[in-house]
Design brief:
The protein is of the alpha+beta class. Among the domains are: 4-92, no CATH class; 99-182, Uridine Diphospho-n-acetylenolpyruvylglucosamine Reductase, domain 2 (2-Layer Sandwich). Helix content is 29%, strand content 22%. It is globular.
């Protein structure tokens, strides 16, 4: 038993007010144990005491017995919410983890079940999780120590997390290990004439662009400021500025990583060029990024638009949207979002950006999009890109509290044809999809050669994403559209069938990645995020 005082629970039932007063006078930590004379159970008493008192530090009485793991998690959460920092941690050990061998360098950043910090670190934005141990390193050396620990626990799931927004959900798990680089979130301008910025992987794009806005700069990121830098800057980054300034990875000038064996390396166009190629599109397979150097672009005021349209003929609206998007100038990016039709009509949400502060230009660019349906609502403002990113809520020290498991499919659409519009409407009528999005691509994305980075799909008009309620139902409905697609975006894909890797990377790209994997991660430590297995020869 850790330092503190044990109280008799029989007294709690006989005289609750006296029991609370005794606990407050005791000081230190109060531990609650079963009484031979009856009385309340420890968990009920702990929750009551947390709500009844303000200063009592409460020791967890041990695992709560419940009918299901979900009920157990809810019991822990209730107590954590009530007690907050007054909850004394007693690690609830998960099987297969050698907690006693946690390196001294990570002792204060290792978070296990039972730790008051655990509730805010176990899950991600969209996915519930219950890892057995989360490390939050602050330096590359601590990342190396965490990787060494992970190497000794290869029988467990292993995830790496930056912002925790990835739909694919590889940054949490059940009973495994997670390296969360969220504490490595510095943003620093290091070369103003070259617009060069050094950014930690745990920073969010909201934080990055708040710094850059002072210089009238921005970096092409996604469409939501709460997304972490590390995931986006190693996967691709299809966002509101991509058609004018390229993908996020196209603005990366150098990456610092810790490899599977703990080696700290720097990759750029001048050093470790092969690794630099690989981490821009397949970075999750090669190491843990600890810093990025990115080149910002001059961006002043922008037009930010949110349009709501009603379409009695979604097939026709999709075709019109495709035609308008295809001919739009590079300074204009508009995303398309809808769901199942209701009473013969579809509600379409469009949101996008015009890289101009001139009101007439903004209206001219957006009007063709607004005419693809019946315009029901609109909000168009002249603002700063940093303010668009700032619409994301601050996560804060409490972390994410996602629940469940998102089910998503992704595809790159070379051309929005009449046949695709027809099949997309059938998909939405199937009842298997509640979220259907097209991200406008083209423009500067296609300026980079397909073999210049591991992200090889440079020429599609759109990135298409669908979310559903069941793997089987969504896969069955989505697979009927597969002939329309050429490739997919791994960050928006949850299907674990092995052929998805072949969809994500063309044959020549995948072959080169496998060869590099054999050199940089021959023992396949980084294996839980669409694994490029080094043992596979073809």
């Amino acid at each position: 038993m850790t330092e503190g005082i044990a109280l008799d629970l029989a007294a709690a039932q006989a005289d609750p007010d006296g029991f609370a007063a005794l606990a407050e006078r005791a000081g230190g930590t109060v531990f609650l144990h079963e009484s031979d004379d009856g009385g309340l159970d420890p968990w009920t008493t702990a929750v009551w005491l947390a709500g009844r008192t303000e200063g009592v530090r409460i020791g967890l009485p041990g695992p709560v017995l419940t009918a299901s793991p979900e009920m157990r998690e809810k019991a822990y959460e209730s107590l954590e919410i009530l007690a907050g920092p007054r909850l004394a941690a007693q690690i609830q050990r998960r099987e297969g983890i050698d907690y006693d061998s946690i390196p001294a360098s990570l002792a204060d950043v290792a978070i296990a079940p039972g730790d008051p910090r655990y509730r805010g670190r176990k899950s991600t934005y969209m996915r519930g999780g219950s890892p057995g141990l989360v490390f939050r390193p602050r330096t590359p050396a601590e990342v190396a120590d965490a990787l060494a620990f992970a190497s000794r626990h290869r029988h467990l799931p292993f995830g790496v997390r930056s912002g925790g927004h990835g739909i694919s959900g590889r940054s949490t798990n059940d009973g495994g290990l997670v390296i969360d680089v969220g504490a490595m979130n510095d943003v620093q301008v290091i070369d103003e004439p070259r617009r060069l910025v050094r950014v930690g992987p745990g920073a969010t794009w909201k934080q990055v662009n708040a710094v850059l806005d002072k210089y009238d700069w921005a970096i092409s990121s996604g469409d939501y400021g709460g997304v972490g830098v590390g995931g986006l800057a190693t996967a691709g980054g299809i966002g509101l500025l991509s058609r004018e300034h390229g993908l996020t990875i196209d603005n990366v000038r150098a990456v610092e990583l810790v490899l599977a064996d703990g080696t700290e390396v720097r990759a750029s166009s001048d050093e470790n060029q092969d690794l630099f190629w690989a981490v821009r599109g397949a970075g999750a397979n090669f190491g843990v990024a600890t810093a990025f150097e990115l080149e910002a672009s001059p961006v002043g005021e922008v037009g930010w638009a949110q349009l709501t349209l009603v379409s009695p003929d979604l097939e026709q609206s999709l075709k019109q949207y495709g035609e308008v998007a295809r001919t739009a100038p590079r300074d204009t990016t508009v995303f398309f979002l809808t769901g199942p039709p209701r009473q013969g009509q579809s509600v379409v949400q469009m949101y996008g950006l015009v890289d101009s502060g001139d009101a007439d230009t903004i209206v001219e660019r957006l009007t063709p999009f607004a005419q693809t349906g019946l315009l029901a609502q609109q909000q168009v403002v002249v603002t700063r890109y940093a303010d668009v990113m700032a619409q994301a809520a601050d996560v804060g020290p409490g972390g994410h509290h996602g629940r469940g498991e998102p089910i998503a499919r992704s595809g790159f659409l070379p051309v929005l044809t009449d046949a695709f519009a027809r099949d997309a409407v059938e998909l939405l009528r199937s009842g298997e999809v509640f979220f259907f999005q097209l991200r406008h691509m083209g423009g500067a994305i296609a300026d980079t050669a397909s073999d210049a980075t591991a992200f090889a799909h440079r020429t599609p008009e759109f990135s298409v994403t669908a979310l559903g309620n069941s793997h089987e139902g969504l896969d069955r409905a989505w697979d009927r559209l597969s002939h329309h697609f050429d490739g997919l975006y791994l960050s928006f894909e949850t299907d674990l069938r092995p052929e998805r890797l072949n969809d994500a990377f063309p044959p020549a790209t995948l072959s080169r990645l496998r060869a590099l994997k054999r050199g940089y991660d021959p023992t396949n430590l980084f294996r839980d995020n669409f694994n490029i297995d080094p043992e596979v020869q073809k």
